[in-house]
Amino acid sequence: MTHDPNSTDSASDPPADxxxxxHQASAAALRRAFPWLIATLxxxxxxxxxxxxAASLWVLDQGYGEWTVGLLLSLFAVAPMALALWAxxxxxxxxxxxxxxIGVSMALFGACVALAxxxxxxxxxxxxxxxxxxxxxxxxxxxxxGLMADDPSQLKRVFSWVALGxxxxxxxxxxxxxxxxxxVSFRAAFALAALLPLLCWLMARRVPSHxxxxxxxxxxxxxxxxLLRQPALRQLLLLNVVLAACWDAHSFxxxxxxxxxxxxxxxxxxxxxxxxxxxxxxxxxxxxxxxxLDELKALRSAMLLATVVLAGYYWLPGTAxxxxxxxxxxxxxxxxxPMVLSMLHQVTxxxxxxxxxxxxxxxxxxxxxxxxxxFGLLAAASVAAAPMWLMASVLLLAQLPxxxxxxxxxxxxxxxxxxRVQG
Length: 423
Description:
Blueprint: H1 18-32, H2 34-61, H3 66-94, H4 97-116, H5 120-146, H6 152-183, H7 186-204, H8 217-221, H9 231-260, H10 265-289, H11 295-312, H12 318-334, H13 336-347, H14 353-381, H15 386-411, H16 417-422
């Protein structure tokens, strides 16, 4: 009997798993909306960046001390600490649009309060809401971005773009806010901050809606802390906190060391800028070469490079030397977020990605609030470079959990997004 090649033989080709087909179709639809997802992140982050610049300059213009600026800036990190775990539960339960809508509402209300009544308390309230708004939305955005990838190389590429969004916002929003303050008024800068959440919501509406599967009562009752029982996630979060603290150490030490050497404000700005440019470049490189990168090897290489640079930074000669050191540190630390987010999505259950992202936000923002104070006390009691030397030592010790994570993943290899969905 001759087999007809045009006939359909269901016996020879077993049907694909319905969950796999559904996930692939959903991921394909989401990938087409990826530019709108990044635009959502950029516009909401720009609201926070504009508020940060306008608030800082307003309190200085009104004659308040630098300590007031520091207090206002700390409010941007306090709210994410309080809301991170709740934001994770919201993202797991409702998906993308509801948490982003909450974030947009918070940012819009905070900006409108500062726009209508400019006083130190109203601006502090605006800073608090702006930081909290970004935290609620960012967890949902990061979770949604993870759904747009089918394999680890796509995860690295996706999260490199996610990391580039705030970098672009930080490059543009403060400049626009500063121009508005100089040429119009502070009120115009706060009006910009109020306009951006509305623009953010228009972008978010372009992302297709696909609510997660309803959670059982038992699933909803599981606390985020329960995820820390997983050794891989616990070690990954520890490494992320250490590397985030290294970022803060660089931000703290460069102005202090530059001032001690008599560098101008513009020279110090150029040194800090070289770090930001290098961080952006390495994220673009990850987008291009993601399929050739192993997350854990890249993370450990970044840790090694950062250790060497932090240990020797204080002795680098002149502005050019500091620029080279900051650029190398930017290359190392700029690669961390895409790798960590990619691995986080692979070591946690699909239905709990939001909670895992909330835990990460809580940990890194806790470090952002606590570390600068500790660095200041340490530098005052010893030398300006002491925070960098401390973090170089901590990075050496952090190779131990990195090695433990490597052994853990050797026993249980990272799963693809599709495998997590099916599991």
